[in-house]
Amino acid sequence: MSADVELSDVSVTFGSFYAAKNVNVKVNGGEFFSFLGPSGCGKTTLLRAISGFQEPSEGKVLIDNKDMSGIGPNKRPTALIFQNLALFPLMSVSENIAFSLEVRGVSKEERKKRADELLELIALEGQGDKKVHQLSGGQKQRVAIARALAVEPKVLLLDEPLSALDLKLRQRMRTELREIQKRVNITFIYITHDQGEALTMSDRIAVMNEGELEQIGKCDEVYNNPLTPFVATFVGENNPLYGKVTGIEGDKAKIETADGQYLATMNESKKLNIGDESIAFVRPESLFIPRDGDNFDNKINVNIESFEFEGNLKNFYASLKSGAKIKFSVPNAIDTSFITSGSSIVLGFESSKSVILPKASLAID
Amino acid sequence: MMGIYIFIFFAYLFGPLIIMSITAFNSAEFPSITPWECFSFRWFNEGKIAYDGQHLAGLLSDWRLHDGIISSLIIGAGVVTLSVPIGMAAAIVLTQVRSQLRDIYYSISIMPVLFPGVIIGISTVVLWDRIAGLGGEGFIADIGRNGIFLTILAQTCFISTYCFLIFVARLQRFDQTQEEAALDLGASQTQVFFKILVPYLSPAIASAAVIAFLFSFENYNTTVFSILSDQTLTTVIASKVRLGISPALSALALTIIALTIIAAVTYEVLRRRTEKRYAESQEKFVKEKAADNRINKKYKAGFKIPKGITAILLIVVFATYGATQIVKNDLYGQSCIDAADKEKKSKFLEQLQTLESNELTDEELSGGSLGGNQDYGDIFGDPSLFQDFGGFD
Ligand SMILES: Nc1ncnc2c1ncn2[C@@H]1O[C@H](COP(=O)(O)OP(=O)(O)OP(=O)(O)O)[C@@H](O)[C@H]1O
Ligand SMILES: [Mg+2]
User: Fold this and answer.
1) Nearest residue CA, atom 18 of ligand 1?
2) Which chain A residue shows the shortest CA-CA distance from B194?
3) Confidence check: pLDDT of A62 > 80
4) Do B178 and A88 touch (CB under 8 A)?
């Protein structure tokens, strides 16, 4: 059983400070939905509002269209996995998992049976008698998930549960989480500041900044058509090219920068006018070294400064004439031995692969 | 070098206790090591009738001490049952209070330990005397003038603060998200308290109970006022000390020390045993579950010699030395005691005779030139003075 979760104009204030402001979002039942945003942007606060630990100062939380105001966390059909997991250190793994059944007065045999089932689900069969401190980080993680699932919640809320794990384990847990979600088929609301994590696991994501939602959408949608410069630079990497709009052709706009003119695609909801201060964005993987016969909409002269090897990609850092920095990536399979530090080359990119947005602050500065 | 410092430190800490313990076995009337009279257990048993007829009670025959111990135990139990819950509740409240109020609350909570104990004792008596006075006869009047009841209240007043501090220290390390997690999993507030908080606090509950009991047991300055006409161990000892200390007190001290050590050792042995059992079960579990190449085949749960062994050896060496000296010089057993008593009696007799032979005239006694001498003028004429004395034989 899964449930819809709707946040209707939810604001949470601490004193005069908005930790979350006018958040409107509807998460569909059975969906894997992520809130993505930098540290301190109010993600945990939102999750606490959904789980009932924090009453919103304005607005309503609806679960299955039922207003949750005044309903305590122990009465809501949600289960929360805490940022620090909050496993009970004095209890064994099985006792942890069966805690929710114990407080509901379920018999001992029943509890054991259910705990064993859940241990199997998280691939920790037979380890129920261990103490929590004897588990590895990933195992603790899975126990926390099993403990939350034992309540049979309609909505599982996860607060950056993978942040403490190392990269390999994190990647494996992403797949596992996704699989568990498919198996139990309940709504997952996932919180992370790691855009890679959000993109790989989620059906939809909401990008948050300074307490407000910047964009909600499918992963590729958000990645390809960011609505704000913040989203453009927070989700994946992007090179900003600052300038003024000098011409409009259909859904394309021409931007005049200190280093030249580029053509970029406008977002339907963010129409620009001539003379507007704006930023064109182009991703490192959309910048190409032209080969014979290639004809790109835009050309850009750069001076290579340094490069780094990232395994599957090589990243080059270059500067433009005005001093602006730019990064581009080339698959490792392509021979780039002719590019050395100090050399000047021309790069090309398609206007369809570049978005232009009204000027606003980026995620990085 | 380090060893020497540690030795000096321990000698400083335990030296007085060890000396005092040894004096318990000396048959002399005053606690002493030298001169050594005889090795005996008399101060643990009946004590002795002194050559001058005074009855010097030993540990077993001193009913005042027994009464005192019993009231001390009752008071200790009462103080533990009151102080631990009060301290715990106060500490939990502290975790709930945010903002500036917190500092004020904290300061007020620890204030009782800053008051002089005497004041707490006196004020409790004064208050309850008023309360008892209000109710006429009846129950209130009875407990309001009951020393044991008042002492429990008075001691709880500041001992609960020590408990409070113990709980605060433990609660500071409590991860409050655990409570939230339990709530989120459907537990009620009561369940959170009993299933999460109390288990977490149980070590603090144990140490608070022990400390409360010890503080209560050894308290004097509050108790001496609030106990009214009853007696606790400390007030009995204090009143004894006014008449000169007796080796029976050394015997009592040694008994208490021995009981403490036995309790500590038993606790430690039990703890190690459960720990070992747990480690063994884990070991077995690991062997069953882990992949073969992750088992260290050379690992063996070994026996380790405890570090305290040198201290124990040192004590044994000294004890053996002392024992051989005693045996060699024949300073033990009934014959030794009889001989010592005989000698003292004859000395006493001698002194008596000397005194009797320089008889004083009434004039000299009332002359005042010898100060307060007249009070003692007739000391040997008082027939009741020697009534307990078996006489010289
Ligand atoms: N109880 C509180 N009182 C006052 N301010 C708070 C409180 N809880 C959170 N805040 C503030 O609200 C903002 C959002 O906090 P929140 O915990 O939601 O961040 P977050 O997005 O989860 O960050 P992170 O990724 O680091 O966990 C922060 O600036 C924080 O300082
Ligand atoms: Mg957070």
Assistant:
1) A42
2) A103
3) yes
4) yes
Q: What is the C-alpha to C-alpha distance for residues B300 and B284, in angstroms, rounded to an integer? A: 12
DSSP string, B110-135: HHHHHS-HHHHHHHHHHHHHHHHHHT
Q: B365 φ, ψ to 5°?
A: -70, -40
Interface confidence (ipTM) of the complex: 0.79
C-alpha span between A360 and B8 (Å, rounded): 72
Q: Which residues, other chains included, contact B55 with Cβ-Cβ below 8 Å and sequence gap of 6+?
A: B47, B48, B49, B388
Q: How far apart are CA A255 and CA A245, in angstroms?
A: 4
Strand A354-358, strand A260-266: pairing: parallel
Any atom of ligand 1 within 6 Å of the Cβ of A43:
yes
Residue B372, pLDDT above cutoff 50:
no
DSSP-based helix, strand, coil % in chain A, nearest 5: 25, 35, 40
Q: Answer left, alpha or beta for residue B244, where phi above 0 means left and psi between -120 and 50 means alpha.
A: left
Ligand 1 near A84 CB (within 6 A): no
First CA to last CA distance, chain A: 43
Give ∠ CA A194-A199-A200 in degrees, rounded to 5. Answer: 105
Q: What confidence tens digit (pLDDT) does each residue in A292-339 have?
A: 878 888 999 999 999 899 888 999 999 999 989 999 999 988 888 888
How many of the other CB atoms lie within 10 Å of CB of A37? 28
Question: What spacing in Å lies between the alpha carbon of A53 and ligand 1's midpoint?
Answer: 13
Give the contacts of B346 (CB within 8 A, at least 6 positions apart): none
| pLDDT value at residue B393 | 45
Give the chain B residue whose CA is nearest to the CA of A153.
B185
Query: Percentage helix, strand, coil, to 5, in chain B?
Result: 70, 0, 25
Structure tokens at A158: 């996860």
Average pLDDT, chain A: 90
Instruction: Give this prediction's pTM.
Output: 0.74
Which value, in Å, is the radius of gyration of the alpha carbons in chain B?
Answer: 30
Residue A260's CB is within 10 A of a number of other CB atoms, namely: 16
Q: What is the distance between the alpha carbons of residues A98 and A113, in angstroms, rounded to a whole number?
A: 10
Closest C-alpha to B143, from B153, A112, A274, B366:
B153
Sequence-separated (6 or more) residues with CB below 8 Å from residue A121: A146, A149, A180, A183
Cα(A227)–Cα(A210) distance, integer angstroms: 16
Give pLDDT, residue A347. 93
